[in-house]
Amino acid sequence: MRSKKRKKQRSAYWRGEKLVIFLKSGVIALSVFIMIALGILGVKFISRSFPVEKILVSGNYHLEEDEIKGLINIRHRSIFKLSLDDLERGLKKKAWIKNVVLRKQFPDTIMVNVEEADPRALLSINERMFLIDTEGNVLEEIEDQSTPFLPVIRGIDPKEDIGGVLEAIKLITALDERNILSGKESIEIMLKAYGLVINMDGEYVKVGYGNYREKLGRWMDIEAEIRGKNIEVDYVDLRFENEIIVKPKKKGKAGKARTGER
């Protein structure tokens, strides 16, 4: 009898233990479910909170601040849902923007620091004028006639001859390094069969290809002499290594000045 009674007690005990384990498991599962639900609700709440209220732009010179803000259009969007990589790609589609750094400043501000492209020349094609940068990229079409002074690259289409445009830009860089740009009212660069030609205030200088800084240095050495003698020059040819050819506008043979003899 005692044995049967003990077995019944053990059976009741185990049933109670199983019930307790079941209840504990249920509580744990319910707690996990509640935590997950609260987490999801929290994420949704946060994603809808902290809207962007301020966009601080720096580094811009040519582009207006409102124009840059309009390119990203993120006002009142949650700062947590914004992808800075996506914003960067969107901003770089603008030719004027060479590079950009973005940063989130909690709780409601996006910092935008832009590096603008460097306008290097005007490109004249088919009676249309474009502004281009140091890499030959077209920044915008110029429609206003009152444009700042920049050298004009005339008749070289970057779609057909990007190499010619880049060579012209190298020549412009050499002109700048020699401080020639600041002393002229008009500079045009054209491409002929034999290479690049500069029209500086009506004076033509045949430059050819390469060694632009050295060639321009030789031209500067003889320019003062030409001016001093009041020689009206048809063109100056710098394409040859050891001589400068000066062709006067009047009839007569072209004069040659060898370097080191002047």
Q: How does this structure look, described?
A:
The chain folds into 3 domains: 38 residues; 63 residues, Ubiquitin-like (UB roll), CATH 3.10.20.310; 140 residues, Rossmann fold (3-Layer(aba) Sandwich), CATH 3.40.50. Helix content is 37%, strand content 29%. It contains 5 helices and 13 strands. The strands form 2 sheets. The protein has a 10-stranded mixed beta sheet, with helices on one face. The C terminus is likely disordered.
Taken as a percent bin, the fraction of beta residues is 25-35%
Helix content: 25-40%
- What structural class is derived from the secondary structure elements? alpha/beta
Count of discrete alpha- or pi-helical segments spanning 4 or more residues: 5
The global form is elongated
- The helix/strand series, from N terminus to C terminus, equals HEHHEEEEEEHEEEHEEE
Quaternary organisation of the protein chains: single chain
Main sheet attributes: strand count, strand direction, barrel closure: 10 strands, mixed
Which regions are unreliable across 5 or more consecutive residues at pLDDT < 50? 257-262
Task: Average the pLDDT over all residues and give the rounded result.
Answer: 82
- When the domains are counted, the total is 3
CATH domain class name of the largest domain:
Alpha Beta
What is the second-level CATH architecture of the largest domain?
A: 3-Layer(aba) Sandwich
The rounded distance between the terminal residues' Cα atoms is 137 Å
Using only C-alpha atoms, the radius of gyration works out to 37 Å
CATH fold-level name of the largest domain: Rossmann fold
